[in-house]
């Protein structure tokens, strides 16, 4: 990201608080690929000064160590590492040099940042073991702040998880810093101020608020032309991007199996049994292993029934939690042959199927559900500023966002259960093509939802639409005690 730094002030404040705290500290900066972790860290380095080193998948461990030795000389003035023969250089020697420097400069705080750590801590590189061995002395020095950052959730799950087998278990001294996607308000403010709220929401449903993806969309063009050029012409990066995400977390063989599983989930999600049927994978343990990994790496999510049934995990559905990957599998994947050949034809308009609205068949409805769920789950400190939380009465009390379905009977988009006021909020979401599609039948549908909340709880009904409701519809909703929400409520 080359543009002026913006919108990450809270994260930057966290880094400054960590670096200025007394004693040594160990922090992990985590987040999805392309979300701007490096952009944040390089801005931080410019402000405070630090040894910053980034891993490279294309370099061997020895090449990385040689590169770090040169960076160390520039940072510390110590050339003891750069003069060592490449065959004699090791991570243990590098960390010993760092320890000696911290001990010899006790009044100075030192910040060491290892970015794209999954490419530094390669298999058999010795990096993680040497770091674990060096940390007690660095911690004892009292003036070492160490930050590791990476895009691979597999690395953190295998190397830093809270199990004794994880080699970096218990080294962290501060809560992990998670880098989140940009909010709808941030996307509108910093990327597409001229676009409507409906267009911004659909953009999020395609990109997941990932900065690198947003930058591929030309902000100076109108919405349809910009989206068509970014996603539906042959120069697009997005047809191969899903492979980069998978290859970061899986080996070549297991990535192919993970792709099969992801392509079988569909818009509503699938049970383990249905995944096996759709993929043709006969081994239940193979499917379970891949699903568990996808859950751990936060690529998919799990839907369990809310209310009385939520303790029963039988029939849980697994769905694509990552908005971009959902967009790829539901829309881009089937259009790939046409996209590979397309120079300028408006394939995006074809997907919309309408000149008046932004409805994409077999995508927009469930993708809208993903978007709203994400907004509701952003329980930030300070509290999120989105009006929907205030209108739903969710600004202070703890709440959970869940799902509910009964085969052939009831389907509820989102159920928000608030233990503070013991109320179950049933939220129906309607992404529609034009205002005329928004009829009073939606009010009736919401009121007809059958749901059994926890004992002693009350139920309230809510409808969120992509098009503004008419005055008569609002009047009917009020009479039926259904709260109508609008897209503007998702923007802080």
**Gross geometry:** globular
**CATH homology group of the largest domain:** P-loop containing nucleotide triphosphate hydrolases
Count of discrete structural domains: 3
Structural class comes to alpha/beta
Radius of gyration: 25 Å
Number of helices, counting only DSSP H or I runs of 4 residues or more = 21
Number of strands: 12
Question: What share of the residues lie within helices?
Answer: 40-55%
Output the CATH class name of the largest domain. Answer: Alpha Beta
Q: What is the mean pLDDT?
A: 92
> For the largest beta sheet, what order do the strands appear in spatially?
2-3-4-1-5
% residues in beta strands: 5-15%
CATH architecture of the largest domain: 3-Layer(aba) Sandwich
What is the CA-CA span between the terminal residues? 24 Å
The largest β sheet comes out as:
5 strands, parallel
């Amino acid at each position: 990201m080359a543009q002026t730094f913006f919108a990450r002030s809270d994260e930057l404040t966290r880094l400054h608080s960590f670096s200025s705290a007394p004693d040594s500290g160990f922090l992990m900066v985590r987040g999805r690929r392309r979300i701007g972790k490096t952009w944040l860290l390089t801005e931080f380095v410019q402000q405070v000064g630090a040894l910053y080193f980034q891993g490279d998948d294309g370099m061997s461990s020895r090449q990385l160590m040689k590169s770090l030795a040169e960076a160390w000389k520039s940072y510390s003035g110590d050339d003891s590492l750069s003069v060592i023969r490449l065959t004699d250089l090791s991570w243990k020697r590098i960390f010993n040099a760092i320890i000696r420097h911290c001990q010899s400069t006790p009044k100075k705080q030192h910040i060491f940042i290892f970015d794209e750590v999954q490419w530094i801590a390669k298999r058999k590189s010795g990096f993680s073991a040497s770091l674990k061995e060096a940390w007690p002395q660095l911690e004892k020095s009292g003036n070492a702040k160490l930050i590791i950052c990476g895009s691979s959730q597999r690395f953190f799950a295998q190397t830093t998880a809270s199990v004794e087998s994880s080699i970096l278990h218990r080294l962290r001294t501060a809560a992990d810093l998670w880098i989140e996607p940009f909010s709808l308000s941030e996307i509108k403010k910093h990327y597409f101020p001229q676009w409507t709220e409906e267009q911004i929401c659909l953009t999020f449903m395609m990109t997941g608020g990932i900065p690198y993806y947003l930058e591929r969309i030309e902000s100076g063009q109108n919405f349809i032309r910009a989206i068509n050029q970014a996603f539906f012409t042959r120069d697009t990066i997005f047809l191969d991007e899903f492979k980069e995400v998978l290859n970061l977390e899986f080996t070549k063989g297991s990535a192919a199996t993970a792709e099969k599983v992801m392509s079988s989930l569909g818009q509503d999600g699938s049970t383990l049994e249905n995944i096996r049927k759709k993929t043709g994978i006969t081994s239940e343990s193979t499917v379970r292993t891949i699903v568990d990994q996808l859950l751990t790496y936060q690529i998919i999510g799990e839907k369990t029934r809310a209310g009385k049934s939520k303790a029963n995990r039988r029939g849980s559905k697994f769905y694509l939690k990552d908005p971009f990957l959902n967009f790829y599998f539901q829309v881009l994947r089937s259009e790939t042959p046409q996209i590979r050949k397309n120079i300028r034809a408006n394939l995006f308009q074809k997907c919309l199927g309408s000149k008046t609205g932004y409805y994409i068949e077999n995508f927009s409805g469930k993708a809208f559900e993903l978007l709203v769920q994400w907004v509701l789950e952003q329980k930030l400190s300070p509290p999120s500023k989105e009006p929907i939380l205030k209108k739903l009465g969710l600004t202070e009390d703890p709440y959970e966002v869940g799902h509910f379905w009964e085969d052939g009977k009831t389907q509820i988009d989102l159920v928000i259960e608030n233990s503070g006021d013991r109320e179950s909020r049933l939220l129906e979401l309607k992404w529609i093509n034009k205002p005329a599609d928004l009829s009073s039948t939606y009010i009736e549908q919401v009121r007809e939802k059958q749901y059994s909340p926890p004992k002693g709880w009350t139920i309230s009904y809510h409808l969120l639409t992509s098009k503004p409701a008419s005055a008569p519809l609002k009047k009917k909703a009020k009479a039926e005690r259904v709260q109508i929400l609008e897209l503007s409520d998702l923007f802080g």
